[in-house]
Amino acid sequence: MTKVRELYKCNVCGNVIEVVNPGAPALVCCHQPMVKLDALAQEGAKEKHIPVVEQTDAGLLVKVGSVPHPMEEKHFIRFIEVFTANQVLRAELTPGQSPEAVFAVEAASVLEVRAYCNLHGLWKDR
């Protein structure tokens, strides 16, 4: 059964969806079951993927990686998400942008921060 905020990926076309209505027994795309993405919290790749969070005067600054993640046409961070008890805040990124975003939220209210790399999947800070 699917749960709210879970991410699933189609291994045929690359489509990624986030569940907003829970309960489906399975998700299908391109006539194949979609794969649930589990966020990693420990580095294994050469590039840095774990979100780094810092409270600033402008809001919550999230940078992907202690060393900036590449933002190239074939390898980039597609989005950064910040979860509170009742909100999902998302910054969608494109190649050429910096792998970071500022969110209008206090760090104390954040439950989780995650980032999605188009090649290496889903990563979280906690």
TrEMBL record:
* PANTHER family in the cross-refs: SUPEROXIDE REDUCTASE-RELATED
| Keyword field | Electron transport, Iron, Metal-binding, Oxidoreductase, Transport
Cofactor binding, per record: Binds 1 Fe(3+) ion per subunit. The iron ion 1 is coordinated via 4 cysteine residues. Binds 1 Fe(2+) ion per subunit. The iron ion 2 is coordinated via four histidines and one cysteine residue.
Q: Which InterPro entries match?
A: Desulfoferrodoxin_Fe-bd_dom, Desulfoferrodoxin_Fe-bd_dom_sf, Desulfoferrodoxin_N, Desulfoferrodoxin_N_sf, Desulfoferrodoxin_rbo, Desulfoferrodoxin_SOR
Known EC number(s)? 1.15.1.2
What family does the database annotate? Belongs to the desulfoferrodoxin family.
Q: Which GO terms describe its molecular function?
A: iron ion binding; superoxide reductase activity
Q: Which reaction does it catalyse?
A: reduced [rubredoxin] + superoxide + 2 H(+) = oxidized [rubredoxin] + H2O2
Q: What class of enzyme is it?
A: oxidoreductase
Residue intervals of the Desulfoferrodoxin ferrous iron-binding domain: 43-125
Annotated Fe cation 2 binding sites: H49, H69, H75
Cofactors required:
Fe(3+); Fe(2+); Cu(2+)
Q: What does this protein do?
A: Catalyzes the one-electron reduction of superoxide anion radical to hydrogen peroxide at a nonheme ferrous iron center. Plays a fundamental role in case of oxidative stress via its superoxide detoxification activity.
Q: Name one GO biological process term.
A: removal of superoxide radicals
Q: Please list the residues that bind Fe cation 1.
A: C10, C13, C29, C30, C117, H120
Ribonucleoprotein: is it a keyword of this entry? no
The entry's protein name is: Desulfoferrodoxin
Q: Where is the Desulfoferrodoxin N-terminal domain?
A: 3-37
